[in-house]
Amino acid sequence: MTGAADCSLGAALRALRTELDLPGAFPPEVLAEAARAPDLSAHEDATGIPFLTIDPPASTDLDQAMHLERRRDGRGYRVHYAIADVAAFLRPGGALDAEAQRRVTTLYFPDDRIPLHPAVLSEGAASLLPGETRPAALWRIDLDGDGQAVATDVRRALIRSRAKLDYAGVQRQIDAGTAEEPLALLRDIGRLRAEQEVARGGISLDVPEQEVIEHDGSYGLAYRATLPAEAWNAQISLLTGMAAARLMADTGTGILRTLPLAPDGAVARLRRSAHALRIDWPHDVPYAEVVRSLDPEKSNHAAFLQECTTLLRGAGYTVFEGGDLPDPAVHAAVADLYTHCTAPLRRLVDRYASELCLAATAGKAPPEWVREALPALPKEMAEGTRRAGTVERACVDLAEAALLDGREGELFDAYVVDVQDRDPSTGTVHLRDPAIVGRIEGGTAPLPLGERLRVRLTRAGPAARTVLFAPA
After folding, report:
1. How far is 122 from 346, CA to CA, in rounded Å?
2. Among 93, 278, 322, 414, which lies 20 to 30 A Cα-Cα from 467?
3. pLDDT for res 344
């Protein structure tokens, strides 16, 4: 972008914070409480395990650390997964706790973030930074030779990460064969867990992400395809979330991440889209199997993957007590019980899920402060998730509008990735260069779903806050 566009975007991003009434600086009493040293006397010493973290290079709020090894009996693998023990630093009902309830999630902007917890915790005392002893909820999950979980344990422990790695570096080491076994096993276990996902009918969508890139005060847009190492790492997190859900189900109290099965009408619409996009989908082939066969580099496949995301809408949080699981209890994309427990520095609900699992493993009743908070959590998380989604979409919209400011009337090559049922002349187009996804309207003929289309930019600029195209 030009310097003027960068300046306009920066001003628009600042205005967005005010417009959405987003949290500002932490109050003094919250900062004071965050600076207090926690009581770690109940944490066992696990600093001898050589943990490592895998995160984006600039990340300092490190929620998870792992160590992977083969089981000594030769019958599979052992996953040690350490999750930041945020509860060790909070006093239930205190100022820090109340502020977290208000914020719910960390909010991300191209130029900054609005954290769930003060930086002294989220990027300091509670973050699993390398070379530092940190409190954690330490999971130990044993897998058999096929990657199926056969034993689970979680307890409070002090851990020490030995290395902070990033996805690209991990991928290079594993591809080159230079990774030591704890890291090399990430591929083996990740692939086995992906096979388990296929077997149970789960699905992970490989949709390239549109993201705003900031470099030296200048902003741009790019599509980011995930690396295999990211997918393998995600399988470890998914494994832990499934293990946590099972623990809660066994003890009769918990909070699950749930997603109902898509209604028949939504699947029928997706089948029509597959036909329009020339995607082969035999009637006896499950949806998940079709998705796994797609190549996001092909324009019609990328469009269909974008359409598939509609089946994943409607996820929420469901509380249960008294032993009976809710209906639905499973997450349709996971195809099993699942909960969020691996990102407590950035997401409120994970702290409660960890406490429920720690109590379950110890054979104790959940802490009263956890049980009292459970009924309100689904609504809190729904509102926090909605706000985070609004911020994410607004940031991308603003970056698109600023990037194309002053180029109204220009022509671009695009692909049609979505068409409205009620008005097939209106939909969404995907530009490869620049990396923009925008609304298209104003034509008289139905849009050709999945086809290349020449489009004209009709609206842009930070004041407009969005871009709009019309068929050329």
Report:
1. 8
2. 278
3. 98
